[in-house]
Amino acid sequence: MKRSMKIVTAVVLIFGIAGGAVAYGKNQWDDIEKRSKHIISYVSDELELDSGQNEKLVALTDQVMQVGKTLRSEMEPMQSNITALISADTFDQDQALEMLTSKTALMNQHAPEVLAALGDFLDSLNIEQKAEVIEFMQHKRGHRGWKGHH
């Protein structure tokens, strides 16, 4: 796989994981600790994780939550800059590209840690558990929850 494709894949994964955690959290609780514990409990129950797998899930969740917190703190000032760009008489493409490049650099900075934690967790799963994850991913569009639970 080309290096650029790996970077794009990493960025998409991080946005997906962090975005999912943030979106889920907005619908559940404002307390990141409660949200994290709930996600861990839910996934652990659905996949019937053993203690070693559960530890890897906790590490992954902690890493994703930390990156999400960092990204949210970076996005707050960026949102006002985006509003200014949109409301200006002409769209400043150079400034927009600079903002995008900055965001991409931040994602690239955190991608290795998140991917390492994700890899550790996924590598710990057995064939049946991986099949459950794949099934969930394939059926997640338009549905909430695992195995059709709402």
Quick synopsis:
The protein has helices spanning 3-28, 32-47, 51-87, 93-124, 127-139.
Structure commentary:
With 150 residues, the protein is mainly alpha-helical. It has one domain. 83% of the residues lie in helices and 0% in strands. The chain has five helices and no strands. It has helices spanning 3-28, 32-47, 51-87, 93-124, 127-139. The protein is elongated, with a radius of gyration of 18 Å.
List the helices and strands and how they pair.
Blueprint: H1 3-28, H2 32-47, H3 51-87, H4 93-124, H5 127-139
Helix pairs in contact: 1-3, 1-4, 2-3, 3-4
| Structural shape | elongated
User: Mean pLDDT score, rounded?
Assistant: 78
Radius of gyration, taken over Cα atoms and rounded to an integer in Å: 18 Å
Order of helices and strands: HHHHH
Class from secondary-structure proportions: mainly alpha
Total number of helices:
5
The beta-strand count equals 0
Largest sheet: none
For the record, the count of structural domains works out to 1
Helicity range of the residues?
A: over 70%
Low-pLDDT runs of 5+ residues are none
Distance between the termini: 37 Å
In percent, how much strand structure appears in the residues? Answer: under 5%
